[in-house]
Specification:
The complex is a heterodimer of chains A (179) and B (910). Chain A has 179 residues and is mostly helical. Chain A is 49% helix and 7% strand. The chains are: A mainly alpha (179), B alpha/beta (910).
Chain lengths: 179, 910
């Protein structure tokens, strides 16, 4: 089974760079699932991808990435949770299909996960889905058209993609009968 | 903002507690699990919060977070950390523990132990920080979320180990807080954990297995939180496997006719008698005959001595009316439709031992005998009823045979029971200018004598019997509920005679022109049909000591089987066999709407075979969505999906590959098997599933048991995939041996699946039996997975079992069988079984009235459909449709619903 990119330190390093934070945070991992831990000078540190990512955003003073209203904040929280429970949790083909299907429905009428603003949810979902999107066939990309549009948009968002491979999307639809 | 939670959905607890704790101004809606979910991403039983902006939150934790955000409490690193931990670590473990506790019956303490390290984690955090709450000295969203996950498992702090002092204190504090207490009261308290149980039971164990494992479980299967196997289980499974065919009992082949046998488990199964003058639809089929058939087949595979009888219910006004419409005699109508029924059930492969009918001399003898015994014991009352009589026709007129002017609105064509215009209920004698519908003559009011079954007097016999039957038998929850509410509302004498010709004659002076009312008569059909099968029928029906009786039906038939018929038999006092297990289904809907006879929407029994889809596929899909515990809906695209994913890609794929490997790589001969630890674990895993299958089927949880079959073949597919016998066969000696073992184990799994599948898909089972040449002596279900196809066994020709359903094909079927319906009323799976209600007109809300109206709606709908089918005049059709709509409106009124809104899709939760 292809190892799913575990939520990890590597991803947090990408995020740090994207946020323009100086390198200096120390990370460790915990348990079999290699959950990232951010070492802090005082206390036991912070555990968990969502938690650390939100902390970094605040550290970089880009709080708008966490949403500006209560509603937006809750929505961002919801998608971060979806990322760490569903996207990272599922590894079977079936799980992946469900995730893509769900996201495709959700993104039908939205530019970003939280609606019209780019948030941390988009960034982490992009990192989390990258290994899946790379492997999709042209037909699948076309089937999950909304996900593809969103993904393509996010990978071109300045500073997000960094060294990750660019996923190609074809502009013309090839499988017009796809449902 | 609107918060929708489903009763019994675990996550309901935390969102309600959070709403309370943060004093959020939410409008609470108790969702029906069948309603379309607010958010497409979440199943309907998960809470959903619809914000005023239209945004829907579907994650319970995000909903909780929102409530706190809305009153200005920003998340901190610490609350975030707790929420993430709860979602990724605690929640999956708590769900698994709860499942183990409720469904597998694990003791509370064991379940708590499974949470061990997670509980330690909370304890350590609380003590290290020295705070009263998880994220500081005040209560935050973190506390509510974590408490909400723990409470269902722990219930109270005493189930926590005493050394977790800080956790205990915190948990107790939380539980006592007003918000949490209220949430627990409204979600849980009335029926406590049973609510959760019903939720969990709707989910087969694999659903829990797909949840992520906690990292804390010491030994993990690759599949996550599946229960770990113990050494003993593995050893036992290996032993059982090795014993092979010798370990199996010989299949019991009863003599015909099947009669109870001393010392055996004797199972008598009935399914509700379908009313003869209708073609059953899919709902009827799953509601009784198919469910009963699956169970009967299972019983036979368990070597239980089983008799399954059913037949058509043929007497009553409805038959007379239908006969008049078709210009035939009632008997001719019955003959015609009995044959239609029998054909349909034959096509569906229903394994009746006998399919009879109620219009037989035995029916008369037995019904009259029961009547005489009731009379002799003083359980019948006589009363005078005023009724219209047509002197020309020499008969009292049943309500539907009278027309006249409505006494309320002066509508000219009001019927004897109600006015189609104003919808008011009418007592036929109140009609102005009444007319006999047959001869247009003027009827006169005459008094007529009727007999009533004295249910109030019989209640003292009924109650102790019910108590005992409930304590020892399996009654579905809806059957218990409906029965309880019937008794609670008070039993009244029920009329058992009618002024009709088509029925069993009443053997009493002064009642020569009368017949028994169908509801009294019809259940006696079970006895008379058995009597037509064997003259020793009393060995089944007057033998409660040796016989266990299972009644299958849809829920609208419950009172007849749980109250009225038992009262007749208890009153007749002749050592009758009374129902031990009453199995009632909920309703099956069609696509997004309802089965609708009026618009020809839905699939009816005689059309199923014209779809080109084999009977076994229909059986599989109907059983897969058997309305067990809640209504369910038939959907074409889902049928296609289940066929292509579960049958073709999962089950069919596995069985076919297992057989093909034997043929292709080993010349059709099962190879030697040298079991490794992995194989042994698989045997134990399969054994667990098999046991679960038995556990469920013994409780007649037919739908859930089917999941076990699919889960075994999933394990099988995975096993083949991981071991890749097609590659190893090309390798060295060791690899080839491995390929042999894997192939051998897989083909034996396929063999067992064929047997487990038999109750569900008999033809497919037979096909597998033929392809693998499974010896007939192995066609028996034991609790162990044994090697039935040992090394050296020759298999036959293996070919694919299932065909892919294509989108185009299914789309055209969907079009053919309708859709786009807007205002149709659900047709109950058993609609035709409902009998005309007694002459007394009930008050609104009265179940009798509702039943009566439901029957009328169904009948009128049917009539309209027939008109349309016969290409009747548009005007005529419109009139009849208008009548139908009116009836539906009345039905809604009677049910206490507003007629303005369409019938809600799901039946209201009782």
């Amino acid at each position: 089974m292809a190892a799913a990119a575990r939520p990890g330190v590597e991803e947090l390093a990408l995020l740090e760079k994207l946020l323009g934070l100086p390198r200096g945070n120390k990370y460790g991992v915990q348990g079999e699932r290699k959950i990232p831990v951010l070492q802090t000078n005082n206390g036991p540190g912070l555990t968990g991808l969502m938690t650390i990512a939100a902390h970094l955003v605040k550290q970089a003073k880009k709080d708008q990435l966490l949403g500006s209203t209560a509603e937006e904040k809750a929505v961002v929280q919801q998608w971060l949770e979806y990322r760490v429970t569903q996207v990272d949790g599922g590894s079977s083909k079936e799980d992946t299909t469900t995730i893509l299907k769900n996201l495709n429905i959700h993104l039908e009428d939205k530019v970003y996960l939280a609606g019209n603003t780019f948030t941390l949810a988009d960034i982490l979902m992009y990192y989390g889905l990258h290994h899946i999107m790379v492997d999709l066939t042209v037909q699948e990309k076309e089937k999950y058209l909304n996900v593809s549009r969103w993904f393509n948009h996010i990978q071109h968002y300045p500073g997000v993609r960094q060294h990750l491979s660019n996923v190609t999307f074809i502009k013309n639809r090839l499988y017009t009968n796809a449902h | 903002m609107r918060l929708r939670v489903a009763p019994g959905g675990p996550a309901a607890l935390k969102v309600l507690a959070a709403a309370g704790a943060a004093a959020a101004p939410v409008r609470l809606v108790w969702g029906d699990p069948l309603e379309r979910p607010l958010a497409s991403l979440s199943p309907p039983w998960v809470p959903a919060l619809e914000l005023d902006s239209g945004t829907v939150l579907f994650s319970p934790n995000a909903i909780c977070q929102f409530f706190f955000l809305a009153r200005g409490e920003e998340p901190t690193d610490l609350t975030n950390q707790w929420l993430e931990w709860e979602a990724t670590e605690l929640q999956p473990a708590a769900s698994a523990a709860l499942y183990a506790q409720l469904v597998h019956g694990k003791k509370g303490l064991e379940a708590v132990e499974a949470l061990g390290q997670l509980l330690d984690h909370i304890e350590q955090n609380l003590t290290r920080r020295g705070t009263a709450y998880l994220a500081g000295d005040t209560k935050s969203v973190a506390d509510v979320v974590v408490w909400g996950a723990l409470f269902p498992v722990l219930q109270d702090e005493t189930s926590l180990p005493s050394e977790l002092q800080a956790l205990r204190t915190w948990f107790q504090n939380m539980t006592l807080s007003e918000a949490c207490r209220k949430a627990a009261d409204s979600v849980l308290m009335p029926k406590a954990l049973l609510e959760f149980k019903s939720y969990l039971q709707k989910h087969p164990p694999p659903c829990v297995a797909t949840e992520r494992a906690t990292s804390n479980e010491p030994e993990q299967e690759e599949d996550g939180s599946e229960r770990a196997l113990t050494e003993e289980e593995i050893t036992a499974a290996v032993d059982a496997w090795a014993r092979g065919v010798a370990a199996l009992p010989k299949p019991w082949k009863p003599q015909k006719p099947v009669l109870p046998v001393e010392g055996m488990r004797n199972v008598l199964i009935t399914s509700a008698l379908p009313y003869v003058n209708n073609v059953p639809h899919l709902g009827n089929i799953i509601g009784c005959v198919l469910s009963a058939d699956t169970f009967a087949r299972y019983c036979r595979l368990r070597n239980w001595n089983t008799l399954y009888v059913c037949g058509t219910d043929e007497y009553g006004t409805a038959t007379e009316t239908k006969a008049m419409e078709e210009g035939l005699t009632p008997q001719e109508i019955c003959n015609k439709y009995n044959a239609i029924h029998a054909d349909i059930y034959r096509w569906f492969d229903i394994s009746f031992d006998y399919f009879g009918r109620t219009t037989t001399p035995h029916q008369t003898t037995i019904a009259q005998d029961i009547f005489q015994r009731l009379l002799a014991r003083g359980f019948l009352l006589q009363d005078t009823v005023e009724q219209l009589r047509c002197e020309d026709c020499q008969r009292f007129l049943a309500d539907r045979f009278v027309e006249g002017v409505c006494p309320f609105c002066n509508y000219e064509e009001a019927r004897g029971d109600q006015c189609d215009k104003c919808g008011k209920l009418i007592n036929a004698v109140e009609l102005k200018n009444p007319q006999c519908k047959l001869c247009r003559g003027v009827p006169v009011v005459k008094t007529t004598q009727h007999l009533f079954l004295d249910l109030p007097k019989l209640e003292e016999r009924l109650e102790p019997w019910l108590e005992q039957s409930w304590a020892t038998g399996d009654w579905t929850a809806n059957a218990r509920y409906i029965t309880r509410s019937w008794i609670r509302d008070g039993l009244k004498p029920r009329c058992i005679t009618r002024d009709l010709k088509w029925g069993t004659p009443v053997p009493l002076d002064g009642f020569q022109d009368k017949v028994f009312y169908v509801w009294f008569d019809a259940p006696i059909g079970y006895l008379s049909i058995t009597a037509n099968y064997t003259d020793q029928w009393e060995r089944w029906w007057k033998n409660p000591q040796q016989v266990e009786l299972y009644n299958f039906m849809a829920k609208d038939n419950v009172p007849f089987h749980s109250v009225i018929f038992p009262c007749s038999l208890l009153g007749a006092d002749d050592n009758y066999t009374l129902v031990n297990h009453l199995i009632a289904t909920e309703y099956l809907n069609y696509e997004d709407g309802k089965f609708s006879k009026s618009r020809g929407v839905g699939v009816f029994g005689d059309m199923a075979k014209d779809t080109g889809i084999p009977a076994d596929i229909w059986r599989f899909y109907l059983l897969y969505l058997r309305p067990e515990g809640q209504d369910s809906a038939f959907s074409w695209s889902d049928l296609m999906l289940k066929n292509n994913s579960e049958l073709l890609n999962n089950l069919g794929n596995f069985i076919n590959r297992a057989g093909m490997f034997v043929c292709k790589f080993f010349g059709g001969v099962v190879p030697d098997m040298v079991l490794t630890l992995d194989d042994k674990r698989l045997l134990a895993r399969v054994t667990l599933e098999l046991r679960q299958y038995h556990q469920l089927l013994e409780k007649v949880r037919i739908r859930d048991a089917l999941r076990c079959i699919l889960s075994i073949s999933r394990h099988g597919n995975q096993y083949i995939q991981v071991n890749e016998p097609w590659k190893r066969i090309k390798g060295d000696e060791k690899d080839r041996q491995r390929a042999g073992t894997v192939t051998g184990v897989a083909v034996n799994m396929a063999s067992m699946l064929a047997i487990m599948l038999q109750p569900y898909m008999p033809s497919v089972s037979l096909a597998i039996q033929g392809q693998l040449r499974i010896p007939p002596d192995c066609f028996i279900l034991s609790h162990d997975f044994t090697c039935t196809l040992p090394a050296g066994h020759c298999v036959g020709t293996v070919s694919p079992l299932f065909q892919k359903l294509e989108n185009d094909q299914v789309e055209s079927l969907r079009k053919r069988f309708g859709g786009g319906q807007t205002e149709d009323v659900a047709v109950k799976p058993q609609a035709e079984q409902t009998h005309p209600a007694p002459a007394t007109l009930g008050a609104p809300g009265d179940p009798q009235l509702i039943q009566e109206l439901t029957e009328k709606v169904a009948k009128q709908g049917n009539y309209v459909r027939q008109l349309k089918a016969n290409k009747a005049e548009k005007g005529e059709v419109d009139t009849e449709v208008a009548k139908l709509l009116e009836l539906k409106k009345q039905l809604l009124l009677a049910e206490g619903k507003s007629p303005e809104v369409p019938v809600p899709k799901g039946k209201r939760k009782k």
